[in-house]
Amino acid sequence: METKSQSVSFDPRTKLLLLITVSGILVQGKMEGMLIGVNLCMLAVPLLFFWVDKRYKKTIKYGLIFLTGVILELGILPRLTGQSAVLAAAVISLMIKIMPGLALGMHIVMATEPAELLCALQKMHMPNVIIWTLCLVFRFFPTVKEELGYTLDAIYIRMGGIKQLILRPVTALEFVFVPLIMSVVSIGNELLMAVLTKGFSMNGERTNVRVQKLRVQDYVAFSLAGVAWVIKFLT
Fold first, then answer.
1. Nearest to 12, CA basis, from 122, 100, 136
2. Where are the domains of the chain?
3. How do residues 182-234 score in pLDDT, each as one tens digit?
């Protein structure tokens, strides 16, 4: 689980709103007129989250990808024709329309504690079925990532380095997927037992030791997201 102390942190409700805003505007948006500024702001949102969480290498990596996509969109794509234009448009769409939402979504899943998410969703009066499902998802993927890291380390030691992994790709894949499938089944059962043990299946309101409140940065994010949607619908 990627949890770090942050000087500026956002409420899970804010994270979900920004995820919907970034994905919705970038997928449907065009790089023209006022939408250029809106799209650039949406591209900056994942980078802001990475930077706040002190993921500086990830910030630089995705920043270069997004910058390359914007340059291709504004400077190169208008000059292309035919099949090259279609191929370039597909690559650009992946870089600046789909990838930002995926990167932000994965970061939110990995960096948000299930207890924090649970408290926020309860304040939204979400149905228990949705709360349980999201909490399981937010706990499942970080655990699978951790198990996959252990599996890859074991494969690296057993096969004697990266050279053998390249020379024997089928064997390497077998060593990855078989333990991973077994781990996924085991993790799913353990998380289900944890849910039942904590009494999530019981009716009634649950208490929570966390105090989840919206802060200044959350209200600022709400306002900026609202402005972005207004500009999107008016242009």
1. 122
2. 12-112+214-234, 115-197
3. 888 888 788 777 767 766 655 666 666 666 778 898 899 999 999 999 988 88
